[in-house]
């Protein structure tokens, strides 16, 4: 578990560093006049520069973005449309995050540009450096309208990521581990596999339990998630909830029929996960102990 958390932190930290470097907003003082016009939304200036021969396909040496990526990232639909009409490659990728324009639209949360790109035939299954499709990106950022749009356009709801710590995660995993209950329910409505497992055998329920998102846990249980599904090291969601010292989630799992006698690979039953940091939260310790006394 500790190794998984370290992997997740490293992956997240690395992604955030890349995103900061790749975000064009005022971070690059030496960007070209063409890129500045795109960022500021100066449509007339962009038109004039294209007529004068501005390269609409050139990747910026610092950010890795093409002009179309920049227009999408900066939420400039009119300029994005102009660039596409002028022949900009909608499937071009930036050389840092390996994202297409549709990936950037999903990241920035611009439904209008997403629809524009999809109407022009953008690939819904393009993958970024972490193996995220636009659907996964939108789900991980809680853009429900874009998630629905992509699903309606046939995006693969079961696609798997390859990011360290999230290897083999689906869009549903990403929504669950962020506590985005609305996105979780939307994905389930469209047929997401509620028992899908990451490479470390985590289900969406196990991730929501581990992260302490009570509402998401409750929603997944109501939708039929396996309350006793084992993850890495043979732990069940109940092992994780007890180990995290979360009485609300412990009660939810017990009320849903969690097995109080299930042993993990180390031979511990869930209530034996009590201890360590939890002793500093004595009221929670008492609550969890009382729940087990009632259910045993």
Topology of this structure?
Blueprint: H1 2-22, H2 33-40, H3 43-51, H4 67-73, H5 77-85, H6 101-108, H7 111-119, H8 134-140, H9 144-152, H10 171-177, H11 181-189, H12 204-211, H13 214-222, H14 237-244, H15 247-255, H16 282-295
Helix pairs in contact: 4-5, 4-6, 6-7, 6-8, 8-9, 8-10, 10-11, 10-12, 12-13, 12-14, 13-15, 14-15, 15-16
Plain-language structure description:
With 296 residues, the chain is mainly α. The protein folds into two domains: 11-156, Serine Threonine Protein Phosphatase 5, Tetratricopeptide repeat (Alpha Horseshoe); 227-296, Ankyrin repeat-containing domain (Serine Threonine Protein Phosphatase 5, Tetratricopeptide repeat, Alpha Horseshoe), CATH 1.25.40.20. Helix content is 51%, strand content 0%. The protein is built from 16 helices and no strands. It has helices at 2-22, 33-40, 43-51, 67-73, 77-85, 101-108, 111-119, 134-140, 144-152, 171-177, 181-189, 204-211, 214-222, 237-244, 247-255, 282-295. α8 (134-140) runs parallel beside α10 (171-177), α10 (171-177) runs parallel beside α12 and α15 runs parallel beside α16. Mean pLDDT is 87; it is low at 1-27.
């Amino acid at each position: 578990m500790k190794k998984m958390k370290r992997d997740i932190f490293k992956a997240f930290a690395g992604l955030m560093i890349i995103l900061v470097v790749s975000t064009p907003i005022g971070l690059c003082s030496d960007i070209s006049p063409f890129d500045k016009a795109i960022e500021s939304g100066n449509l007339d200036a962009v038109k004039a520069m294209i007529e004068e021969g501005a390269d609409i396909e050139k990747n910026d040496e610092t950010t890795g973005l093409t002009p179309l990526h920049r227009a999408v990232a900066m939420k400039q639909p009119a300029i994005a449309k102009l660039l596409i009409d002028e022949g900009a490659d909608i499937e071009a990728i930036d050389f840092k995050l390996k994202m297409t324009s549709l990936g950037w639209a999903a990241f920035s949360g611009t439904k209008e540009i997403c629809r524009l790109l999809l109407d022009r035939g953008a690939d819904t299954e393009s993958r970024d450096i972490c193996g995220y499709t636009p659907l996964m990106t939108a789900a991980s950022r809680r853009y429900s309208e874009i998630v629905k749009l992509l699903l309606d356009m046939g995006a693969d709801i079961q696609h798997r990521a390859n990011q360290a710590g999230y290897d083999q995660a689906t869009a549903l995993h990403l929504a669950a581990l962020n506590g985005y209950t609305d996105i979780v329910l939307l994905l389930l409505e469209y047929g997401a596999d509620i028992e899908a497992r990451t490479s470390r055998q985590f289900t969406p329920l196990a991730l929501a339990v581990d992260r302490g998102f009570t509402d998401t846990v409750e929603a997944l249980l109501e939708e039929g998630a396996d309350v006793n599904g084992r993850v890495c090291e043979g732990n069940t969601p109940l092992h994780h909830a007890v180990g995290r010292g979360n009485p609300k989630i412990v009660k939810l799992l017990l009320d849903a029929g969690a097995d109080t006698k299930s042993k993990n690979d180390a031979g511990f039953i869930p209530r034996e996960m009590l201890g360590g940091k939890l002793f500093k939260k004595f009221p929670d310790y008492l609550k969890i102990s009382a729940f087990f006394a009632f259910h045993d």
